[in-house]
Amino acid sequence: MMMVSSKTFSSLQFFTLLYLVTVTFASTEEATALLKWKATFKNHNNSLLASWTPSSDACEDWYGVVCFNGRVNTLNITNSSVSATLYAFPYSSLPFLENLNLSMNNFSGTIPPEIGNLTNLVYLDLNTNQISGTIPPQIGSLAKLQILRIFGNHLNGSIPEEIGYLRSLTKLSLGWNFLSGSIPASLGNLNNLSLLSLYENQLSGSIPEEIGYLRSLTKLSSSRNFLRGSIPVSLGNLNNLSFLFLYENQLSGTIPEEIGNLRSLTMLDLGRNFLSGSIPASLGNLNNLSFLSLYNNHLSGSIPAPLGNLSNLSSLILYNNQLSGSIPASLGNLNNLSRLYLYNNQLSGSFPEEIGYLRSLTSLYLGNNSLNGSIPSFVCNLTSLEVLYMPRNNLKGKVPQCLGNISGLQFLSMSSNSFSGELPSSISNLTSLRILDLGRNNLGGEIPQCFGNISSLQVFDMQNNKLSGTLPTNFSIGSSLISLNLHGNELEGRIPRSLSNCKKLQVLDLGDNHLNDTFPMWLGALTELRVLRLTSNKLHGPIRSSGTKIMFPDLLIIDLSHNAFSKDLPTSLFEHLKGMRTVDKTMEEPSYEGDGYYHDSVAVVTKGLKLEVVKILSLYTVIDLSSNKFEGHIPCVLGDLIAIRVLNLSHNRLQGHIPPSLGSLSVVESLDLSFNQLSGEIPQQLASLTYLEFLNLSHNYLQGCIPQGPQSHTFESNSYEGNDGLRGFPVSKGCGNDPVSETNYTVSALDNQESNSEFLNDFWKAALMGYGSGLCIGISIIYFMISTGNMQWLARIIEELEHKIIMRRGKKRQSQIIEI
Ligand SMILES: *[C@@H]1O[C@H](CO)[C@@H](O)[C@H](O)[C@H]1NC(C)=O
Ligand SMILES: *[C@@H]1O[C@H](CO)[C@@H](O)[C@H](O)[C@H]1NC(C)=O
Ligand SMILES: *[C@@H]1O[C@H](CO)[C@@H](O)[C@H](O)[C@H]1NC(C)=O
Ligand SMILES: *[C@@H]1O[C@H](CO)[C@@H](O)[C@H](O)[C@H]1NC(C)=O
Ligand SMILES: *[C@@H]1O[C@H](CO)[C@@H](O)[C@H](O)[C@H]1NC(C)=O
Ligand SMILES: *[C@@H]1O[C@H](CO)[C@@H](O)[C@H](O)[C@H]1NC(C)=O
Ligand SMILES: *[C@@H]1O[C@H](CO)[C@@H](O)[C@H](O)[C@H]1NC(C)=O
Ligand SMILES: *[C@@H]1O[C@H](CO)[C@@H](O)[C@H](O)[C@H]1NC(C)=O
Ligand SMILES: *[C@@H]1O[C@H](CO)[C@@H](O)[C@H](O)[C@H]1NC(C)=O
Ligand SMILES: *[C@@H]1O[C@H](CO)[C@@H](O)[C@H](O)[C@H]1NC(C)=O
Ligand SMILES: *[C@@H]1O[C@H](CO)[C@@H](O)[C@H](O)[C@H]1NC(C)=O
Ligand SMILES: CC(=O)N[C@H]1CO[C@H](CO)[C@@H](O)[C@@H]1O
Which residues form the Leucine-rich repeat-containing N-terminal plant-type domain (predicted)? Predict the structure, then answer.
């Protein structure tokens, strides 16, 4: 069969060829067995495996097959789009198989016990498939196994103790599954184990002390499980350990001093547990450490000064604890520090000048502590800073002009302090600035004109200061502005027409100022606008539509209260508000943003909140036109805005009847029509509003019987007082429909949990910074939470969504699956 035609054919070449011919063909039995298996694939036309044919040589020609001495030694069909099961694999026909790599395919079904027949296997890799069921104990027969990777599947049940028989194992990766039960102590026998990853399962119980016997371990992760108890002191023996990740469990007790013995450690993450006590000073011995994360625990005491010895540290993440005392000056030695997260603690004192030495610092998060004093100008030496986050401290003095020199600054928040003086105009030189939040201070003076054209700016929040003068008039085309909040200042003049250039604007709050203008109907062309708040200004005149088709299509909150608007209620405006006309059903399918990167603080803290704002907010729609000079009738068309939760038309000069169409506002929670000149009877339809928690119809000229419905009992007589003609419960008897027995309805008080709102406030700003899931999140949620204080209502929805997201955790995206 072999044609040998060359005349210069040496005998050496001849023997070589002969060898190839006789030896390199895989045993026919092996090839046949593999073909049989391939025939069971759901996609047997798989293009990568097209080379697997009866007429070709398995050892020479088949994709992914490597032979040794004519027998199949390696089967490596990683990432080959194979949809199949492991049931028909030729377990008994491949006695020399050492390397089986089926990773990143679509293998489903369970791992059959026959896997134990592959006794020569050295490497077994099934990662990132759809394999379910339990790990068969027969796997313990694979005595030569050095690498076992099954991460990224749907395995459940417990980890078989028999894995402890695999004494040659060097790498064991079982992460990203649904394994439960406790970690078998037998793993402590695996003397050669260098990597142990149990990341993201449902393991419970405590971490066995025996794990501390694994002297070869370099990487240990059992993050994201339900492990309890304390961190075993024995882990202090693992002197080759380089990664120790135990974050997101339920570990309690103190951090063992002995962790300070792990001199090889480069990354230590114990975040999101219930650890208490102080941070052991011994951690200052870990001089290879580059990443130290202890966030979200109950750690107290001060930050140990020896942490300043960690000269390789690039991230120090201690937020959400109860750390107190001052920031140690020694931290100024951390030349390589790029991220310093100390927010949400109880740190006090001023911040030490030495922080100014941290030239590598990109993120400095000090918010929500009790730091005092002024912002020292050495902060401006931190020329690498992108994030400077210091809200909610006791800082005072001026905002330094030199901040304008930190040219890469993207996020500047100093809100809720006591800063005074003027806004430094240098800030407008920061061409990367995305978030500027100096709200809730005592800043005065005018807003420099140049602030109107910081083209990168997305959030401009100066609420509750003492700014005076007029608004900048030069908002320019291409503006990135998403949220402009100048609420609670002393601004006067008109609403600048140039705001119509801010096409991305979602939130505009100019409330509580002295603006003197007519209604800015032209804002209706901003199709993204969700919140428009102009309350408590000197706005006046009738609200008339401009006749355009698109008018506030996404508006969900409009608050024009406490102005001097006059004439009829704006019927044509109501006819347009598309966003208020549908009750959003999308809540049923919240978007799951995944758990991308493991130590992403924000992503972890708030994984349940990664939702599109729009979806949440569309459940909270408000029309507040109270305390103006509106007259005429309440237009029936209001009844079409069926998504309204809060409708307030009180303190106007409205006349005529209450339109029965208001009975269509089926989710309305608060309805206030008091202090008008409404007459006639209360429409029976209002009695069917089952969500209604607050009703005020007082001080009108209403007459007749008060309609009774399921919610009527909750309203007291002051809901109706000042209407001489009204009769019936609760005002009087005599309508023949008094309730038989009084039921206890608990009307939930609007529950203003400041801490909750602050937490969310952090969240959305961080979200804007690109952490987690990107830009369009949270602005409006937070906006409304802070401005309405209605926490309880939102908390309910968020809980519901978190639950749904947890239920959906199984749907993981392959691209996100990581080994450790
Ligand atoms: C395999 O066949 C299916 C259905 O016949 C087809 O949709 C798919 O594109 C084919 N795949 C390849 C790689 O040829
Ligand atoms: C397995 O196959 C992939 C893709 O062909 C290749 O990149 C990889 O090096 C192979 N691994 C082994 C261990 O043979
Ligand atoms: C898997 O294969 C696809 C192409 O089929 C390629 O784009 C991708 O990078 C591969 N993934 C890995 C992890 O090798
Ligand atoms: C993976 O396999 C399952 C079960 O056989 C099948 O329903 C699914 O379509 C396959 N997915 C892909 C991407 O091939
Ligand atoms: C399996 O193949 C993938 C992709 O080439 C590779 O990254 C992995 O290390 C292999 N597994 C083993 C155990 O060799
Ligand atoms: C594993 O999951 C399957 C369904 O996929 C279920 O039937 C079985 O009871 C589970 N086993 C354990 C031990 O949880
Ligand atoms: C453990 O590793 C050592 C050194 O590589 C090796 O000599 C020994 O055989 C291994 N032990 C087992 C049980 O494989
Ligand atoms: C800040 O920079 C100035 C000028 O470069 C320098 O004189 C000063 O010592 C620096 N301060 C700190 C704390 O690094
Ligand atoms: C902005 O920077 C330029 C040059 O760097 C400087 O001349 C100017 O004074 C700065 N503007 C402000 C308002 O600080
Ligand atoms: C609003 O401005 C107009 C003229 O610009 C002035 O006549 C009027 O008094 C102002 N209204 C209030 C309430 O200040
Ligand atoms: C209503 O609730 C109060 C306090 O919770 C309770 O004392 C009272 O008995 C309840 N009344 C009825 C009628 O259930
Ligand atoms: C030859 C051999 O070892 N066969 C075994 C393959 O695996 C099954 C299931 O564990 C055993 O029952 C066989 O004895």
Answer: 29-67
If asked whether residues 713 and 602 sit together in one domain, one would say yes
122 lines ligand 2 (CB under 6 A): no
Ligand 9 atom with least separation from CA of 450? 13
Task: Identify which ligand lies nearest to the alpha carbon of 740.
Answer: 11
Tell me the pTM: 0.82
CA-to-CA distance for 599 and 613, rounded, in angstroms? 24
Q: Is 787 part of any domain? A: yes
Give 276's Cβ-side CA count (13 Å radius).
4
775 and 728 co-located in one domain: no
- Beta-strand relationship, 99-101 and 418-422: unpaired
Q: E strands, 55-183, where?
A: 65-68, 71-76, 83-85, 99-101, 106-108, 123-125, 132-133, 147-149, 154-155, 171-173
As a whole number of Å, the CA-based R_g of the chain is 34
Torsion 95-97-102-103 (CA) sign: positive
Q: Is residue 262 part of a domain?
A: no
Q: Where are the beta strands (DSSP E) in 315-398?
A: 315-317, 324-326, 339-341, 346-349, 363-365, 370-374, 387-389, 394-398
Which of 708, 739, 770 lies at the terminal end of a domain, its last residue? 739
Q: What is the CATH number of the domain that holds 535?
A: 3.80.10.10
Same domain, 775 and 634: no
Task: Spell out which residues line ligand 5, taking CB within 6 angstroms.
Answer: 78, 101, 103, 123, 125, 147, 149
Whether 726 is covered by a domain: the verdict is: yes
Number of domains in the chain: 2
Contact between residue 345 and residue 370 where contact means Cβ atoms under 8 Å apart: no
* 270 alpha carbon, distance to own chain's centre: 20
Atom of ligand 2 nearest to the CA of 101: 1
**Residue 773 corresponds to which amino acid?**
S
> Residue 567 falls within a domain, yes or no?
yes
Q: Positive or negative, the Cα torsion across 99, 103, 106, 109?
A: positive
Given a cut of 50, whether residue 767 has pLDDT beyond it is: no
Stated as kind and residue range, the H or E segment containing 483 is strand 483-485
Indicate if 581 and 665 belong to the same structural domain: yes
Average the pLDDT over 28-42 and give the result. Answer: 93
Does one domain contain both 689 and 773? no
Atom of ligand 11 minimally distant from the CA of 742:
13
- Is residue 478 within 8 A of residue 452, CB to CB? The reply is no
CA distances from 138 to 141, 252, 397, 463, 473 (A): 6, 35, 70, 66, 75
For ligand 6, atom 7, which residue shows the shortest CA distance?
133
Interior/surface letters 468-501, b for 16+ CB within 10 angstroms, e for the rest = ebebbeebeeebbbbbbbbbbbebbeebbebbbb
Residue tagged 């951090």 (tokens): 255
pLDDT higher than 70, residue 350: yes
As given in the structure block, the two tokens for residue 15 are: 């023997």
Strand-pair partners of 125 = 101, 149
Same domain, 561 and 663: yes
Say if residue 649 is in the same domain as residue 584: yes
Q: Identify the pLDDT of residue 90.
A: 96
- The predicted structure's pLDDT at residue 620: 66
Q: Report the separation in Å between the CA atom of 78 and the middle of ligand 5, taken as the mean of its atom positions.
A: 7
Q: Which domain holds residue 663?
A: 518-739
